[in-house]
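WP5 quarterly update. Target: isochorismate synthase. Source organism: Trueperella pyogenes. Length: 422 aa.
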Amino acid sequence: MFTIPHLRAQTTPLPTHPVLSELLRTPVRAMAWMKDGKGFVAAGEAARYDHGPDTANTRFALASQWWTELTTGAEIRDELKRPGTGLVCMGSFSFSPTCPAGSTLIVPQVVVGFDGEAAWLTLIGPVDRDVFDTLTDDARALVDAALRPSPVDYPSHGAVRVDAVDVAAYRDKVALIQERINAGGVRKVVLARELSLQAVSPIDERYVIERLARAYPQCWTFAVDGLVGATPELLAATLEREVAVTVLAGTLPRTADADPQELQASPKDADEHRLAVESVVSELSKIARIEVGPTHVLTLPNVLHLATDIRATLDFMATPLQVAGALHPTAALGGTPRLRALEAIAEVEGIDRDRYGAPVGWMDTRGGEWCIALRCARIDGTHATAWAGGGIMADSLADNEYAETEAKFAPILGALGVADAS
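Structure tokens (predicted):
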């Protein structure tokens, strides 16, 4: 079914701790996964799995199978054995299985990582060749940057223009969703917006990644296959059989007078958050023993979120992607009940979500991290498409929901250099 390359991965400790964002300066094309200065930067492709539109929705199972077969046949030399060392892949998936964007896993040729205690360099290539003979220019540049940091800065892509927004059309969509809610059968529907952006020159992903990581250090900043963003929501992190999930739903834009107690006291936001937590608990309890933590307020530079941490122990071994696939889409990005909400999204929303709101992350042979792709844009040359959404309930106010999406757009618009992003 698959073409499985026979790979060798070798991880070597680095004597100094790299500043990951500075490593981005040399490779023109790079992948990244960073939070609070920790994570890794990667370049090159040692192997790649692409999965197109899929009416049977087998994408998570098949991608997990590909990864399992690849790791089973690989030679891995890893004296550190820490999360993110050894053989790793990064990936992103489309929100809908039938979306033309499809889904992708990429095994990089070079990975430079730092977890706060240890730093490492991993080289990955065919088992029957010298890995240095197979490296792309970007992969070689990343190796050089890890050993000799470069002072080179990112080129500017110039001014960015945002297409006009039809606010009235958004209000109409909210009204249509609420008609469905009031008619029964669906309780919450997440309605997303998209913005089309055009730059003067090709957009340099490194510029966007660095700005996101600097402005939103408590989020996971990611760059995978043209998808760049900084998400606060953890879909599934696993290590062996242990799982961690963070559910975010219920949002207040962070203005000068924003009060966390106002968010905690809001019946609409409390109901929205409860439905999101219940959707994760319902699916995760089928495969694991779970423990739900107390709900708290997560404060970010642009918004306040109601947040709940969930911990679980799997009943059996599974890849991180299998766990993430079982949970996607949660009620935080789809709605409740799931199928009815997805029907409403397909009929009312009127946009292609592409890889927004879907799993994005990485795996090694012991576990990994998959987040929900939020505060993100898909970059293609001089063009970018960004998305933001919010949960519509029966008592939602359209103008408040619109303001929430504007606040959620702010991180990626600011990173792209849109002048009026706030």
